[in-house]
């Protein structure tokens, strides 16, 4: 049976490192590597409900954008997300694809919406289908 539901969390960035690869200065191929905790937005808000990590590879300097891959880890499994992101390392609002998962999310699809709250706090809404 296919079901769908929404997971709404705040991502609290603990690590955010820009890697200058290849030509000195910002260039195609540079990376932004990040990780942190996922916090509940439901009462009691602020409770750690998981963690996340990922990376972006710069692909277009003029748009300050790149291809990003993120994994969200919850107690029942993981959700993977991929897509283009502008505004690296401070992300612009975006909707990217949920490309899969593990555990209770093993057949997951759908999309994740990201919205910036502060440079170190991102609002994430997972619209998960097929699990």
User: Please, what is the oligomeric state?
Assistant: single chain
> Cα-atom Rg, whole angstroms?
15 Å
Helix percent band: under 10%
Coarse shape: globular
Helix/strand order, N-terminal first: EEEEEEEE
User: What's the number of extended β-strand segments?
Assistant: 8
Low-confidence stretches: none
Mean pLDDT metric: 94
**Distance, first to last CA:** 8 Å
Structural class: mainly beta
Count, helices: 0
The strands making up the biggest β-sheet line up spatially as 1-2-3-4-5-6-7-8
Strand content: over 45%
**Largest sheet entry:** 8 strands, antiparallel, barrel
Record keyword descriptors for this entry.
eight-stranded antiparallel barrel; mainly beta; 66% strand; globular; 131 residues
Give a written overview of the molecule.
The protein is mainly beta and 131 residues long. It is 0% helix and 66% strand. It has no helices and eight strands. It has strands at residues 4-19, 31-40, 48-60, 65-74, 77-86, 94-101, 109-118, 121-129. The protein has an eight-stranded antiparallel β-barrel with strand order 1-2-3-4-5-6-7-8. A hairpin with a 7-residue loop joins strand 5 (77-86) and strand 6 (94-101). The N and C termini lie close together (8 Å).
């Amino acid at each position: 049976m296919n079901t769908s539901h929404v997971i709404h969390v705040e991502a609290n960035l603990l690590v955010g490192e820009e890697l200058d690869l290849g030509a000195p200065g910002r260039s195609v191929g540079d990376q932004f590597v990040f990780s942190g905790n996922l916090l509940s937005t439901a009462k009691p808000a602020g409770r750690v409900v998981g963690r996340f990590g990922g990376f972006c590879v710069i692909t277009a300097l003029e748009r300050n954008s790149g291809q990003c891959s993120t994994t969200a880890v919850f107690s029942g499994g993981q959700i993977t997300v991929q897509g283009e992101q502008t505004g690296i390392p401070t992300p612009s609002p975006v909707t990217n694809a949920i490309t899969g998962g593990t555990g209770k999310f093993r057949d997951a699809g759908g999309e994740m919406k990201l919205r910036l709250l502060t440079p170190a706090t991102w609002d994430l809404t997972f619209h998960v289908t097929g699990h």
